[in-house]
Amino acid sequence: MTLQTHLLAKAANQARGLAIDAVHKAGIGHLGLPLGAAELGAVLYGHALVHNPERPRWLNRDRFVLSAGHGSMFLYGWLHLSGYDLSMDDLKAFRQLHSKTPGHPEFHETPGVECTTGPLGQGVGNAVGMAVAGKMAAARFNTPEHEIINYHVVCLAGDGCLQEGVALEAVSFAGHQQLDNLILIYDSNDVTLDAMADKTQSDNTAARFKAMHWDVQTVDGHDMAAFLKAFNKAKKAKTGRPQLIIARTEIARGIPEVAGTAKGHGEGGAKFADAARAGLGLPADQHFYVSEDVRAYFAKHKQRLVRACNKWHRTYKAWREANPDKAVLLDAGAKAPSAAHLLEKIPVFPADVKHGGSRASGRDVLQPLAAELPLLIGGSADLYGSTLNYIAADKDFDPANRAGRNIRFGIREHAMAAICNGIAYDGLFRPSCATFLVFADYSRPAMRIAALAGLPVIYIYTHDSVGVGEDGPTHQPVETVSALRLIPNFDVIRPADAEEVAGAYAAALERTDGPTLLALSRQALPLLNDIPPHIRRAGVLKGGYVALQETAPLTHILIATGSELQYALAAAKELGAGTRVVSMPSCFRFDRQTREYRDSILPPSCRKRVAVEAGVTGLWSKYVGLEGKVVGIDRFGLSAPGAQVFKELGITAEAVLAAARSL
Ligand SMILES: Cc1ncc(C[n+]2csc(CCOP(=O)(O)OP(=O)(O)O)c2C)c(N)n1
Predict the structure, then answer these.
(1) What are all long-range contacts of 367-372, with beta carbons under 8 Å and residues at least 24 apart?
(2) Atom number of ligand 1 nearest to Cα 32
(3) What is the per-residue pLDDT across 184-209, written as a single tens digit (0 to 9) for each?
């Protein structure tokens, strides 16, 4: 099909008008990108992208990621014109309460929005993750007879995205992994927010990407034919390299007063709306205007897209019939296993097992689960030797083996988490990743988005306390566990022994509406054999449970997590028969239980409560109350053998006992 440049140029100007009107109406928003990239949108949505507005989650659609999420009206405008379920009224409600058009694009809120973007650079990481998922899916599901997966991931990013470290990490990973199903369009307009981009950047982007094994083309982003040519070339490239198209654009084109300047980035141009609309050939009396011919063009284009999708479905049907096993596997990706089912697959640990910490229990728990869940994949940021989460029955994911289930992310914790988000958005594979817990700070912006977007990513972060020992305070988390617990919808589980690790994995894998972090220890932990395995496992699912039941009228409650549960249990022996010990591996899971359950574990009448955790104390007052005490560490750690550090910092059974007796 030839490019309908005349009509699409008109559509581009009308998309500009939609952005101007929406931002003008809301009184806030970013005009620069939707106006500057309008021709790119026209070519993508009006011609080049393979997608189906009727089926926004069609398996083989091209994924379009707007990494520069501040330009959300770009996406909303083009999704509306393309015929997604996004009405003109939705556009008019831009940035308003409960609208489908929030300030920055949010996954789940708007059909056609592939991911939540706004923190710059995240989308680049997400796009790389989607490209990884595409390669993995193609390797598993395509057959010589039926190619059902061959989509591209198309990402639009600005100067801001490419300045961010996460994008650099992701781009470097993508080049190394030869992800040639990825097309990154750089909206290169020489403008950021505060100022012209030359105040903050002077790198040669093309050279930078070439050095990271990308193919690079540079085009005038307002020349639709030139852009389409570059895009088609990128789609067809068989070079084994990801594709960068540097589209030179003028920010805020269409509002001459601000175009090409930093003032054009935000809503500054909205005050020139009337003149701008006239200049764009839009009727003065009709805001949110789309002409009949543009509507008709997109309606026809939609039919073409639907036909192509239907054609694919015929191939897909034949594929299903010819490959029933693969079809079962594909369907499995969409389903969540129940924790009970998963727990059946994990053998109970022998009572005398000698373990190198809960990270080693994690290794042993992971293997049967990986066998049960073939679409569970994992990765580590160059720390497999320490995080122990390698799926032993499988191999590395790399250009020669796209079916591999172990991703070597390199020392790129931020991109690792953003890439896992990308894989999770895609929905087919279940991503997990690993590093030292203290480096959760390096992953955190992506973890926050996982929680916000409800992505079931699993973080297997080990070396969870000052018990790390000799590596010293740089490597010893003290505030990390509690800090992560502050993220809404982000489950943290810090299991106390091997059976609790089994419960933790099952809990994480059962979850479909948000991420879970497993905080695992480096140092050895005793098996809590006095508590039956099924109680420990099921207890984790509830978040908190009675690990030691009092045998006399309740006097004290000792609450502990992870490696400190042993100290609470030891202290209880001394304290007396009225002492109850509560294991609380996951505060959020516990908080989600019924009031009845929570009160049965922590009876409100018992005020003599002590919590112990090898970390900052603040959060625990919620569970011990003003009258209770917390044994913890409100300072940084120490470089010494772990056991000595615990003693020196007062994380001992004696300290728990003393705190309880002082109440
Ligand atoms: C991580 C992060 N830091 C800062 C911001 C605030 N911010 C939004 S847009 C922007 C400027 C981005 O410049 P560019 O990518 O060139 O966008 P353009 O001006 O072309 O629209 C900034 C600093 C953000 N959204 N995310």
Answers:
(1) 367/391, 367/392, 367/393, 369/342, 369/345, 369/505, 369/509, 370/394, 370/405, 371/345, 372/337, 372/342, 372/345
(2) 21
(3) 999 999 999 998 999 999 999 999 99
